């Protein structure tokens, strides 16, 4: 057994040996994200699973385990959890394969968006719609998720996160005009008022797996809660890891809008406006995260996404300008300067 890179807990080791794994199973590290969790692929002949190792048994750890079971009960595309050892902070779960949506969008490490994106994204959107359609029934039977609301306080935290980590830390801007701060609050108010559904909360290309049978599955859903129906589709389509071109973003948004029955309470224009507001909220949060993870946490790989995040946010503000009704011109002037 090659497990010198991680000490597998006795209970998970016993589970493996009693479920068809041999003593010489292999353990291979899987690249993680910015959460601090580590992942390892465990393999023995044709059997494979993934071991998640956390620093502590915190709220995220417990939510992942609980939500995996709950979401699978509703037929949602998440991995099975096989074995949990809280003392070792380890979770053994289903192996969804090695290919994320990001891997499929840029096959073989290329920088050119794959032609298969036109096929893959609608399939991912279909899976998201399945997720959103389960909201009412799931909330009715699991009030703990319904009560976990992505409210104004959480949204305002995101814009403050952008202010502290992008504007101040990365750009060195010390004075933020009051009109700009008010704008961030108004965006949060707008997104908080949008129709609520089950929200993944980090619905980006690295958290969407394309299984060997081409089925779509979601990971890192421990942040799921009740929030804006536009937030996850915004996370997917404005993801700086991929940087979809604007025409493709509009096409995929229209596909989601036309297929998801929850949008029927909105006119086409109102749906687009709600999407733009949620997109501003999400993209500012993502840009703040890249700066925090690279500059504070010293995880260098995230620095490469700051410029793509800025570029996407510039495009998004261009779309917002076309629908803005009473936004102070100082806001656009400041953001044009801050995103240079």
Sheet with the most strands? 5 strands, antiparallel
Mean of pLDDT: 95
What strand order characterises the main sheet? 1-2-3-5-4
By helix and strand content, what is the structural category? alpha+beta
CATH superfamily of the largest domain: Aminoglycoside phosphotransferase (APH), C-terminal lobe
CATH architecture of the largest domain: Alpha-Beta Complex
The tally of helices reads 13
Low-confidence runs:
none
Report the helical percentage.
Answer: 40-55%
Describe the protein.
With 340 residues, this protein is of the alpha+beta class. It folds into two domains: 10-94, Phosphorylase Kinase, domain 1 (2-Layer Sandwich), CATH 3.30.200.20; 101-338, Aminoglycoside phosphotransferase (APH), C-terminal lobe (Aminoglycoside 3'-phosphotransferase, Chain: A, domain 2). 49% of the residues lie in helices and 13% in strands. It contains 13 helices and nine strands. It has helices spanning 10-17, 59-73, 101-105, 117-133, 135-141, 143-146, 152-170, 178-192, 231-237, 246-259, 268-296, 306-323, 329-338; strands at residues 26-30, 38-44, 47-53, 81-85, 90-94, 196-199, 208-210, 216-218, 225-228. The strands form three sheets. It has a five-stranded antiparallel β-sheet with strand order 1-2-3-5-4. Strand 1 and strand 2 form a beta hairpin. Helix 8 (178-192) crosses helix 11 and helix 9 packs across helix 11 (268-296). The longest helix is centred in the last third of the chain and has 29 residues, at 268-296.
């Amino acid at each position: 057994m090659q497990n010198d890179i991680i000490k597998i807990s006795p209970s998970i080791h016993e589970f493996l040996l009693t479920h068809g794994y041999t003593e010489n199973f292999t353990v291979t590290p899987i690249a993680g994200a910015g959460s601090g969790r580590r992942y390892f692929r465990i393999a023995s002949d044709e059997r494979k699973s993934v071991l998640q190792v956390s620093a502590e048994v915190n709220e995220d750890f417990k939510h992942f385990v609980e939500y995996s079971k709950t979401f699978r009960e509703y037929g949602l595309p998440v991995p099975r959890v096989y074995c949990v050892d809280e003392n070792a902070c380890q979770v053994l779960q289903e192996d969804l394969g090695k290919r994320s949506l990001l891997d499929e969008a840029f096959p073989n490490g290329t920088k050119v968006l794959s032609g298969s994106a036109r096929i893959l994204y609608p399939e991912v959107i279909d899976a998201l719609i399945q997720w959103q359609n389960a909201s009412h029934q799931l909330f009715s039977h699991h009030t703990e998720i319904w009560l976990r609301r992505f409210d104004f306080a959480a949204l305002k935290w995101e814009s403050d996160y952008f202010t502290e980590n992008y504007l101040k830390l990365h750009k060195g801007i010390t004075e933020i005009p009051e009109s700009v701060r008010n704008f961030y609050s108004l965006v949060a108010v707008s997104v908080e008022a949008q129709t609520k559904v089950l929200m993944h909360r980090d619905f980006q290309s690295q958290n969407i797996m394309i299984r060997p049978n081409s089925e779509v599955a979601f990971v890192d859903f421990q942040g799921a809660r009740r929030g804006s129906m536009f937030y996850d589709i915004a996370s997917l389509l404005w993801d700086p890891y991929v940087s979809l071109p604007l025409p493709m973003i509009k096409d995929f948004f229209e596909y989601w809008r036309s297929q998801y029955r929850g949008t029927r309470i909105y006119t086409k224009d109102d749906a687009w406006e709600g999407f733009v507001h949620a997109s501003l909220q999400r993209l500012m949060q993502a840009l703040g995260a890249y700066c925090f993870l690279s500059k504070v946490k010293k995880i260098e790989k995230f620095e490469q996404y700051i410029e793509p995040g800025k570029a996407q946010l510039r495009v998004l503000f261009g779309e917002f300008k076309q629908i803005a009704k009473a936004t102070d011109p100082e806001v656009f002037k400041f953001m044009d300067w801050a995103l240079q």
